[in-house]
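Same chain as my last thread, 374 residues:
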Amino acid sequence: MDDLLPDGGLAEVLQQRHSGLGSPMLVFRLAIAVTVSWLIALAFSRSPLAIFAPITTLLVVQSSPWSTLGLSLQRILGTGIGVLAASLWVNLVGLTWWSFFIAVLAALLAARVIPWSVAGQIQIPIAVVFVLAIGPASMGTDLWRVLDVIIGGLIGLLAVYIYPPRPRTEPLEGALEAYRDALITVLRRIGDESGNSAATLPNGTNHEYIDDSRALRVVAESGRQALTKLADSARWNPRGRSVLPRLQSDALRLRRLGGMAVQIRGIAGAANLLYDRAEPARLSADDFRRVVASLAELAASALGETGEPVATADPATVQQLSDRLAVLIRNAADALTPQGEGPGSSLESVSILGRLDHVRQQMMVFALAAEDEE
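reply #2:
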């Protein structure tokens, strides 16, 4: 599941991006944190302008400690690099139009190669522009600018870490339900529309369910993003300890739904070429629709009905439906090759039945895994 869950390492935390202002509670927390940061900077900082600390707090506070840590590190490191480099440069050559241009160009080129998020990369040229605009100063003053940024980042972390928001599992569950519903919908459309066209479809014209099958990738990405967001919100969060143990299970559910989606997309592509074409398929449309309808019934039992949580209702019922479907698929395959004929003329029909049987087995694995977890 490593490719679905963020690894939590330094490289990953430095890729954290700003996710917006979020809820009204986060806005209120942010306003308090920025004000406190400004007051502390006024009291302790030796910088001429006490702006670096509150600006840093304003930019780094997020809805979770983990994302706030990532943005704080990027802000602190980026500002430190930019301030120190610009201070050395402006004190060495002075401030002219050409020294300003060279400094900004060098900062942008350096930021471009650093493997951070765009928000982190842009901190380097922003710090350079600030230093150049304010003008030459002593090295002590420049160091205090960096310290102000560190103060702002630490206050931002404290603002989120002190009673942080509880990770919400509902968005992930909703994404998994949407993924499951999309899979079942595509299956049912494949069964309903294949062989039911009023006219033969010309080459290059697809059944309407092809667009829905392609859209499964978008639904899958929404599920992956919801899982990543839940993992990020639980990491470094004292109120997220109950969520961390379930992440592997959630990633496995998403992975198994993804495996079914790959096969269902293949079934859609094969059915699109087999049915409503000039050359009839060896597997009749009625037999195909019967198998697909049975698979959709199994999906509703193994994965949950549309609108319900993604869970297996009754493993015994799932087993009965699976066994009945297995017999149906094998009987349909046996009938494809009359005695004395080879399987070559039925290859496409046998292949699509094999895919349907593979999805049946995937659904059984999903149902049995859910039973084991209980």
